[in-house]
Amino acid sequence: xxxxxxxxxxFSLIRNGASxxxxxxxxxxxxxRIETISNGYLNLEKLGYANIxxxxxxxxxxxxxxxxxxxxxxxxxxxxxxxVKNISTKxxxxxxxxxLRTNGNCSYRYVKFYFETIDFYNQILNIAxxxxxxSSFTVTKLRNIEIPLPPLAIQEKxxxxxxxxxxxxxxxxxxEEKYDQLAQAIFVDMFGDPxxxxxxxxxxxxxxxxxxxxxxxxxxxxxxxxxxxxxSFIRSLNIHRNEFKYKDLAFIDDKQADQLKNVIVKNxxxxxxxxxxxxxxxxxxxNEVLPAYVNQHVAILRSIKEKLNSVFFVxxxxxxxxxxxxxxxxxxxxxxxxxxxxxxxxxxxxxxPPIDLQLKFAKKxxxxxxxxxxxxxxxxxxxxxxxxxxxxxxxxxx
Length: 398
Known about the structure:
Elements lengths: L3 E3 L4 E5 L13 E3 L5 E2 L2 E2 L5 E3 L16 E4 L1 E2 L7 E3 L13 E6 L5 H7 L3 H10 L7 E2 L2 H5 L2 E3 L3 H40 L11 E3 L4 E6 L15 E4 L4 E2 L2 E2 L5 E3 L1 H5 L5 E2 L4 E4 L8 E3 L7 E3 L3 E6 L6 H9 L1 H11 L11 H6 L1 E3 L3 H18 L4 H15 L7
Parallel strand pairs: 15-22
Antiparallel strand pairs: 1-12, 2-10, 3-6, 4-5, 7-9, 7-10, 8-11, 13-24, 14-23, 15-18, 16-17, 19-22, 20-21, 20-23
Helix pairs in contact: 4-9, 4-10
């Protein structure tokens, strides 16, 4: 196994960014912010802008090869990094992201990939001040984190291999995102903005369109009593926008399931996150996980099929403007924790186009979903993660 060195031995610069007021439009000097971290790289479309003189913060310009790291964020996103590459303009490094610049003793690509490992994240957890809403760690503590460091030539070989696997998964992700954008465009073309309702569709409350609106509960003992097999137990981390994530799906036994018989999930149910950071995300339950149950953070929305098609329904809930409207309900009154109650859900009004039009939309989405299955996103992600875990233990290159 290779020797481990502290991060401060790999980087000539580890520091916070400039404290500058940022604004959204594209005027002024571009400046990094939390949103610029996207899939491990710097997303130039997410930059903020600052109304300052061009060379006022010359010491804070980022360079190709720099690594930006989130050090103030939710615990899940703490330590997330973005590699700066292919920039040809001056961009200022703003606050809330650390900037790390290698000293030449290590490959910035190698280190960037190490920052995506479970080993690094566990070290971040050890130095973080953990909080429900926002966690953080200091530059001083980060400097002392250790990283396995083989000779530079081996670092570059590892980075080359991981680069190829990384580009493959990013290509699949981008293709999947384009299919999602197409589905959203079709929805807007057919039904318009569901909040503005410029097409004048009839509006009805959810309690008149659903035969069931309700959430579940967690068996006594919490996650410690989950099983490796049995009945599927769905949590909010499984529910993403228009997508069910199988990773970390929990299971319960027959006895536990009997205690939750009032919250059994059925075919075509729409599952809707009602609390926490993932509030307002919605997905249709896949048949493969049935029979299934939900915990208290997930609501079952069972539409009356003659009135409301599930595919149309979930697309409406995940529509950008509708989701913003729902999030406003979840955070009204300055709530410190996002949440939507059953009573609030029942009273939400949504647009209800004719059912035959909803069914036509569902057919189009079915075609798109079949195309998405051909992107191999899951396989390319699994390949990358497998190589990533082997890379820093000496298994990938001896």
